Amino acid sequence: MEDHRELGRFLRTRRARVTPESAGLRGGSRRRVPGLRREELAQLAGISVEYYQRLEQGRATRPSEEVLNALAEVLGLDAVEREHLRVLARPVRRRTEQAEPAGPARPELRRLLRLMSVPALVINDRFDVLALNPAAERIFLPAAGGSASGVNLARFLFLSPESRDFYVEWDQVAAETVGQLRVAAGRHPGDAELSALIRELHGGSDAFRRSWAGGDVGVRTHGVKSFRHPSLGTLTFGYENFDLAGDSRQRLVALAPVGSSEAVFGAAAVARNGGIRHTGAP
């Protein structure tokens, strides 16, 4: 991703979703562009039209904090979008950044997974599965082909037809996954492995291309998710994402069964399985 061009793309997609009426301007049927015009956004943000055009064209670098705050206010950006705007506006010095190894989670995490009674796994921001406990294996491995080695949840989601049966809320999961990948790409523009994954998904999935073009960003922290298991039926879980100290690109995902799913994934049933499967680098 070219940082300044990506900044322009992000501003254009955010500008397109702001209605003139919501910004206190007159709308009308004769408008030729969705959302605000460049000159309208510039006026509302208190900057010149010429400078804003340079931002969208990738010709203006490192806008001030005051400009970023003004744009964020007019565009109605949430906290994640504001941070993404700042990341794009303050790109790291261009360099070849080696992809961080997607190897196993550290031993302490593997022990923690083994002791957890609910399904849990460790993934990175490329959605590589690094480790998972037996309860999580029971959910994901039948759908992912029966092997934890080399599983990437984003690749499975967009490139495996089975994923549409597996994820009950497929559209929502897909949109959230794209939003998180865009955040990761903004933070790590030199990650060759992440860039290759995005190119692969872009080339192999119409749904990914459409969602990526929308420019949305997001970070999942918690929620409810349902899966259609081939032998266990529909399973519903509340999930929590925990960022891991010491590695900002890894997170622990824990899934607490809801309703009838508790009978399938109760603490006693999980404890009987014991152990943990630890995957190598995809």
Write up this protein:
With 282 residues, the chain is of the alpha+beta class. It contains 14 helices and 6 strands. The protein folds into 2 domains: 87 residues, lambda repressor-like DNA-binding domains (434 Repressor (Amino-terminal Domain), Orthogonal Bundle); 172 residues, Beta-Lactamase (2-Layer Sandwich). Helices cover 48% and strands 15% of the residues. Strand 4 and strand 5 form a beta hairpin. The longest helix has 18 residues. The radius of gyration is 21 Å and the shape is elongated.
Work out the number of β strands: 6
Q: Compute the number of structural domains.
A: 2
Q: What would you call the quaternary organization?
A: single chain
Mean pLDDT: 85
**SSE ordering:** HHHHHHEEHHHHHHEEEHHE
Unreliable stretches (pLDDT < 50, length at least 5) are 94-99, 270-282
- Describe the strand arrangement of the main beta sheet, using strand numbers: 3-4-5-1-2-6
The CATH class of the largest domain: Alpha Beta
In angstroms, what separates the terminal alpha carbons? 23 Å
Helix and strand content put the structural class at alpha+beta
Classify the helix fraction into a percent range.
Answer: 40-55%
Our estimate of the beta-strand percent is 5-15%
> What name is given to the CATH topology of the largest domain?
Beta-Lactamase
- What is the annotated CATH architecture of the largest domain? 2-Layer Sandwich
Protein name: Helix-turn-helix transcriptional regulator
Domain HTH cro/C1-type: 35-82
InterPro entries: Cro/C1-type_HTH, Lambda_DNA-bd_dom_sf, MLTR_LBD
